[in-house]
Amino acid sequence: GIFLAGLINRYTLSIALIASLLLYLYSYRLKRTVLWGNLTVSLVSGLAFVYGGAAVKRLSLALIPATFAFLYHFGRELLKDMEDMHGDRLQAANTFPIRFGIRATQALITCIFLLLIFATLLPYIWGIFGLTYLLLVIAGVDVILLYVIISQWQDASPKNLHRLSNWLKLGMLLGLVAIYVGVTF
Hints:
- This protein is mainly α.
- The protein has one domain (about 1-185).
- Helices cover about 85% and strands about 0% of the residues.
- It is built from nine helices and no strands.
- The longest helix has 27 residues, at about 160-185.
- It is flat and about 45 Å long.
- The two termini are about 30 Å apart.
């Protein structure tokens, strides 16, 4: 992957090297730490869009989906940490929910997803994406985020958190469609 990135341009090579280093650090050090593992996964997810933007020399357009991906994955990673608390405790992991508790994690997820909902409106407000984007992102992504926020407070059982994590996967797909439509139309 790094070799191929080098064939595109020096920016994609740099991004591929950074992502590889981050994933190495995640695997060997950061996976079971308070927030650092979550932030690393989120950053690498966002870097995928930066890489694509650098490859086609349209980096400025990539910053919007990169930011969305970072926030989306950060919230989802925390939700998955809540779901995995029992197993993480057995492995002596030091995740955010283990260190600070369920309520603090729910509050952090709520803040992240509310920030993301606000951020999804900005490309329309700034005139970057049109009305079709706005309608798709509200109906397809923001509604799911609001549902996850509310449901995680009502039922923090691993079963419900797993279900919410799956809803967030659907939201990712719908978000990609909204961004594609926003850029294309």
